[in-house]
Amino acid sequence: MNFNASRNVGQGGGIRKAKRVSDVAAMGAPSPTPGFSPAPAYNPGYQPSGPPPPYQEGIQLETAQDFGQPAPAANFGYMGGFPQSPMVNPAQIGSMLQQPVVQDMALQYGNQLAAQGREAVQREINKYVPVSRLRYYFAVDTRYVMRKLLLILFPYTHKEWMVKYDQDTPVQPRYDLNAPDLYIPSMGYVTYVLLAGFVLGLQHRFSPEQIGIQASSALAYIIFEMIMYLVTLYVTNTSTSLKTLDLLAYSGYKYTVMIGSLLAGLILGKTGYYCCLVYSSFALSYFLVKTLRLQLLSGSQAPEQPSYGGYPQAYPGNPYADSWSKPAAGGTKRRVYFLLFVAVTQPLLSWWLTYHLVPAGLAPPPAPAR
Length: 370
Prior knowledge:
- This protein has helices at residues 24-27, 90-97, 100-128, 131-137, 142-153, 183-202, 208-235, 244-252, 254-296, 329-352; strands at residues 165-166, 169-170.
- By secondary structure, it is mainly alpha-helical.
- Among the domains are: 100-128; 139-302 and 311-357, no CATH class.
- A hairpin with a 2-residue loop joins strand 1 and strand 2 (169-170).
- The radius of gyration is 56 Å and the shape is elongated.
- The N and C termini lie far apart (178 Å).
């Protein structure tokens, strides 16, 4: 049966009422309604394993956790959570140390450590021993030593006794004959000890203990002498430009007199010893008076000014400059007395340390035991 919608239109242009069809069979059987089966939007090519996991925020929950299991044993060898580094082969370390770059770095690091250690040792030594000043007193040469020995033994022809200064620092002893030094006193001390042992051997009185006795007694007397001078200056309240090392240098010049007297005693006996001792003692006293007079009578030192470079001066300032204060009348007397005291004690100590070594005559060797 065909249905034509235009048939419902009447002649007057109005819509004609459609006829009702009562015979359903005449219209045909209706098509069955299909069941709901949603087709997938895409075909992934494989069957899904199941529904997707629920949505979690931030952290995923593990559904297979078993809270009844014991905790794993702790590993104290390595920190947990960090990968363990593999063991280094010793051969690789040896080959790395043989590289020139590594050796240069090790050498530079060693030099830096050595320099730091040297600076630390020097800093500790300078707290107790004035090394910078000692360098000044040992700055001598052969010409200076020979001229200084002749000056001590024959001081009468010398005219200029003033110590030379360069700005506020004295020149080194090798350039100035009047500057004090510690080379001649130290070498004189060693020579005196050896000569004393030789003289005792000629007298058949030598023993290894005698060398130690002579060395210790000479050292003890020089220390006692220095303490006596310093205490005298302190008690009398006498301020001078002399330092402790200056007094030690001038006190050590007496070893020249002692050695000359012992040599004269070996050659000429006691007569030659006493004749040489008297002359050399008088020459030493004259030398000390002429040398110390200018430094003792110059007064006390003004406030010390730092030398160039920021380093302290290795020697006291110029006592002949205008920056030095002039001594008072009472202070001058005390300085003169101290000068005479030093000039007298030096010959006495020279005699005291040598008279027991002078042989009366070479004794014959002891007879062999039968």
